[in-house]
Amino acid sequence: MPTTPDLSTLAPAYDRSAITTGIVHIGVGGFHRAHQAMYIDRLMREGLGSGAPDSTGSGAPDSTGSGATAGAGSGAPSTCLDWGICGVGLLPGDARMRDALASQDHTYTLTLKHSDGHHESTVIGSIHDYLFAPDDPQAVLRLMSEPATRIVSLTVTEGGYNIDDATGAFRTESDGARHDAARPHEPTTAFGYIVEALRRRREAGTIPFTVMSCDNLPGNGAVARTAVVGQARLADPELAAWIDEHVSFPNCMVDRITPITTPRDIDELRRELGIVDAWPVVCEPFAQWVLEDDFPAGRPPYERVGVQMVDDVVPYELMKLRLLNASHQGLAHWGRLLGMTYGHEAAADADISTWVRAYLEREALPRLLPVPGIDLTEYVDTLFKRFTNAAIADTLERLAFFGPSGMPKFVVPTVRDNLTVGGSIRLGAAMCAAWSLGVLGTDENGERIPRVDDLRPLAERQEAGDETAFISNTEIFGDLAGNERFRTTYLEELAALRSQGSRSRMRALVTEG
User: Fold this and answer.
1) Beta-carbon neighbour count of residue 501 at 10 Å?
2) What Å distances lie between residue 230 and 223, 301, 360, 474, CA to CA?
3) Of 148, 436, 459, 497, whose CB neighbour count within 10 A is largest?
């Protein structure tokens, strides 16, 4: 456990030695530890029962001995310690997480950074074990095959699902997919492990676990289904059909700004609270989780700690992706061209914030579905309060890093919808043009832009005279380069940015509206 002179007000009071695994999570990083693991820790602290309320139907007893009872709704709560999380790491870099967590009994410190400057820290205890798959692949498969494991969750990043963005199909020719198809009992990818564990559960007559994607992409459950079924089909089409019919893949919307932990964060924790933590997590106070209630093997009573359980998550995920995440892309691409470093700098800049609000109001908001229980005007106002929280110090470098995987999900779909109905696309096209110029690696002050993505060769071709090279990347833009209206608007905005500069062009776009 992280060391400190007095953990009495920070550490969990529940008996961590009594925790058993109910959830296996693949891809433990900062976001999982700030979000899903935090919610489970809340449940354990409150001593709430296992299963789900009777009214949801997802907590009904099963015949597998998995413990998925309806205790939470029957008035007979337990401690929820049977919903402990065992993390799983698959990549070489995950060895660092293995070592950091193992050195402190798998606990870690979560610090909420408030905009007024004060910090709120808690030691999270819901992750009770961690398996580094390359150390012992069979140990991972045995755990995933146990009846007590009722949920396998994922945060493997938006680009980690091996899905072709243009077609929506599983990439069957990737090295990992081919390896796991040829040697299904010795998997290396997340989807290979899930398929093999489901095969073993099927053979043993054990109810399948629920696959819960918590990544930031539209229809994350449906995308996870495509990946798992696609991987299974390569080696065993009959198993693939069984998975498609019997395994649940609920969609969800997740939200909490969680920047990368810095050495300064670690030092502040030690200096201010006396806590020595190898890898703490820092995040904003805001957290949101909207989750489809489809858990045949049972689930924790998430709704008791603020998770919104719904029948259809689509309106909520579109709201988040096309408002919050699209705004992040706007802040990143305009801010980096102007030489800024942090998200709160860009959000506090009058020209950038006015431009982002104009984009949301004119192009994004009109294309959203009604969102039950949400005032969208208030939601947008809340976004800017969150974005300007300087204590978070979220870097534009981190936000821009998600351009290649995020723009096709956060911005391009809005452009497409507006093209379909004849709506405005100019601000979206301008954002794409600003992105392309930032990828060149130099801001408008002549300074280097750090960590540009691998689209730079296309941006350089664009600068050399092949004006549609950047938007001809079909993995990101699909066939938009062939759409006359988009192509013309993009080229107009590219030319205007070059001649006017970012700040003047943003002002003109807002005024022209």
Assistant:
1) 13
2) 10, 31, 36, 22
3) 436
Q: Using the 8-state DSSP alphabet, how is residue 468 labeled?
A: T
Full DSSP string of 429-480 = HHHHHHHHHHTTSB-TTSPBPSS--TTHHHHHHHHTT-TTTGGG-HHHHTTG
Residue 357 CB contacts under 8 Å (≥ 6 apart), including other chains: 380, 384
Average pLDDT, the chain: 92
For 421, the token pair is 């109905």
Q: List, for residues 136-172, the tens digit of each pLDDT value.
A: 999 999 999 999 999 999 999 988 999 987 789 999 9
| Rounded CA separation 306/444 (Å) | 44
Place of tokens 């229980």: 373
Cβ-contact 244, 170 below 8 angstroms: no
Interior CA angle at 310 toward 309 and 316, to 5°? 105
Could you tell me the two tokens for 105?
């009994």
3-state secondary structure 481-502: HHCHHHHHHHHHHHHHHHHHCH
Say how far apart CA 395 and CA 340 lie, in whole Å: 9
CB atoms < 10 A from the CB of 5, how many?
Answer: 7
Return d(Cα 142, Cα 347) in angstroms, integer.
47
Task: Tell me how long the chain is.
Answer: 513
- Identity (one letter) of the amino acid at 476? I
Q: Is the dihedral of CA 194, 195, 198, 204 positive or negative?
A: negative
Q: Is 319 exposed, middle or buried (0-12, 13-18, 19+ CB in 10 A)?
A: buried
465: left (phi over 0), alpha (psi -120 to 50) or beta: left
Least confident of 3-7, 180-184, 208-212, 301-305: 3-7
Residue 138: other Cβ atoms inside 10 A: 10
Q: What is the pLDDT of residues 289-347, one digit of tens each?
A: 999 999 999 999 999 999 999 999 999 999 999 999 999 999 999 999 999 999 999 99
Sign of CA dihedral 494, 495, 498, 504: negative
Nearest to 43, CA basis, from 94, 88, 78: 78
Cα separation, 214 vs 158, whole angstroms: 10
* Burial of 285 per CB tally in 10 Å (0-12, 13-18, 19+): middle
Closest CA to 199 of 143, 233, 243: 243
